[in-house]
Amino acid sequence: MAEITSLRHAVASLVHDGDVVAMEGFTHLIPFAAAHEVIRQGRRDLTLVRMTPDLIYDQLIGMGCAKALVFSWGGNPGVGSLHRFRDAVENGWPTPLQLEEHSHAGMANRYVAGAAGLPFAVMRGYTGTDLPENTANIASIVCPFTGETLTAVPALQPDVTIVHAQRADRRGNVQMWGITGVQKEAVLAASRSLVTVEEIVDELAPVPGQVILPSWAVTAVAEVPSGAHPSYAHGYSERDNDFYVRWDAVSRDRETFLAWMEQHVLESANVGRQT
Amino acid sequence: MSDDWSADEMMTVAAARQLRDKTACFVGIGLPSTAANLARATHAPDLVLIYESGCLGAKPQRLPLSIGDGILAENADAVVSVAEVFNYWLQPGRIDIGFLGAAQLDRFANINTTVIGGTYASPKVRLPGAGGAPEIAASCREVIIVVRQNLRTFVDRLDFVTSVGFGSGPGDRARLGLRGDGPKAVITDIGILEPDPRTCELTLTHLHPGATAEQARAATGWPLAVADDLRTTRPPTAEELTLLRQLEASKTSSQAGAGVA
After folding, report:
1. How many CB pairs (< 8 A) connect A and B?
2. Cα B191 to Cα B207: distance, rounded to the nearest angstrom
3. Got the DSSP string for A122-190?
4. Closest listed residue to residue B251, CA positions, set B64, B49, B101
5. A122 pLDDT higher than 50
6. Same domain, residue pair A89 and A54
7. Which residues of chain A neighbour B87 with C-beta distances below 8 Å?
8. Is residue A201 located within the same domain as residue A248?
């Protein structure tokens, strides 16, 4: 059964230096508040896994929490570059960042294999691209039934997956809806999981298109209203598109970035909303 | 002759016209999304918009600002997981048209969105990477590429192959086991390029009103093939321009300040 606890306690007990950590949420429900708590607690040498690193990993990378990144698209959606990610790759600042790069289809399938307890996933993909040459974790496999050559990618099995959801009940059953991305697969693939939620309620009223993570499949639940800001929680908040635009200027310069993080994350309590 | 539209508007209108009604289109954010929604507002009301965030049959009332904008989920036919979009819908070839952009493009319509300059491990410029593009390029029945034409983008040799067009020429897609037909057209701010049926090489087939073949050649990093029967793109109609500008305005008025760089 999931333990209902504080964000601070959950991060302290579930996320350790050197862990493989996946924080998922496809534009929607990105667990920013939990990432900020990871930064505040000074975690180091993390291997960060995420399809779309987004601002959340730009912040973790810029604050020196990561040694490696496993990803498929690293940009500021609709705005441009992730400057801290680029600075780490292009200049090794604040520390060099080892990359393991995939396509979205490859990453999604890696989570599916992880959730299914299989060592790898099979798919049609990557063929003819330069990705297999640069990413060790992409291989060819021959179908034992048809002889067709397909692509294999290994399962992702994070030490801990962190996601944000709309609601949980008091027993720790989690409910999310709207665009739910790869969160279910990412949680089921991980050894441990933390779900931050907008609110904890007595009853989970059914919602069309909902995804339920049963309490017994989740390690910890923490109530963090606005914990996805500047991303959004369908039914609770709108995406703060202005923030994504402003981040471009904040993150372009190392000193401006560090000052912003100091003021808005390091000195902040573990609340979700930073402006 | 009326000349009161921008090159980007002509590009978007030309891209929208490539989309046929009652087909399914895999849409990326930015210009492809604008073009697909313009098509839906004009000649293709039953165009099925598919976004990689899991929204099948999205019907946004304004332009979405991100691939996972809540408006895409609100009245979609279905919202599914990302794994399902790629595995059940894209991979088996259920999607008619894929709409892609590019940071670099070569004469066989191969695309780079990964790194520029230096080496892969130590690039001069680190770009966002693949996203959904490699499998969209492989598995959609047809692919349309929308990209501004200039020497930085239209290069003789890609620094990295992120998504495959025609590889190194005729027969390559079949050899690689790519099941879609590959790029059908490249829409730029200067004109339209289409693959030569024999050589697969991109050939300039249309110029937008006011553009010249000389201009297209000067913006291309390889000796550009030009069709014998080079045609002029039909200018945007008043309706197309009005609807396009309404769409663009819906984006800025709904969330002021969220620009696309």
Report:
1. 192
2. 4
3. EES--TTSSHHHH-TT-EEEE-TTT--EEEEEEPP--SEEEEEEEEEETT--EEE-S--TTHHHHHHHS
4. B64
5. yes
6. yes
7. 105, 108-109, 112, 123
8. yes
Question: Is A150 found in the same domain as A161?
Answer: no
Residue numbers in A near B81 (CB within 8 A)? 108, 180-182, 184-185
CA end-to-end distance (rounded Å), chain B: 31
User: Which residue on chain A is closest to B132 by alpha carbon?
Assistant: A104
Q: Which residues of A touch B138 (CB under 8 A)?
A: 124-125, 127-128
Give yes or no: residues A255 and A136 share one domain: no
Shortest Cα–Cα distance, A9 to chain B (Å)? 30
Q: Which residues of B have a catalytic role annotated? A: 52
Question: Domain B7-188+237-258 is in which class?
Answer: alpha beta
B252 touches chain A (CB under 8 A): no
As a whole number of angstroms, the distance between CA B203 and CA B228 comes to 10
* Predicted interface score ipTM higher than 0.90: yes
CB contact under 8 A, B83 and A80: no
User: Tens of pLDDT along A247-256?
Assistant: 999 999 999 9
Indicate the pTM of the whole model. Answer: 0.95
Range of the domain at A49: 3-102+157-266
> CB distance B91–A124 less than 8 Å?
yes
For tokens 């098509």, the residue is B39
Residue B53 touches chain A, beta carbons under 8 Å: yes
Phi, psi of A198 (to 5 degrees): -65, -45
Strand partners, A140: A151
- Is residue A199 one of the residues assigned to a domain? yes
pLDDT of residue B257: 37
Q: Where are the domains of chain B?
A: 7-188+237-258
**Token couple for A39:** 């930064």
Name the β-bridge partners of B49: B25, B58
Contact between B254 and A240 under an 8 Å Cβ cutoff? The reply is no
Q: In this complex, which of A75, A109, A248 lies closest to B128 when CB atoms are compared?
A: A75
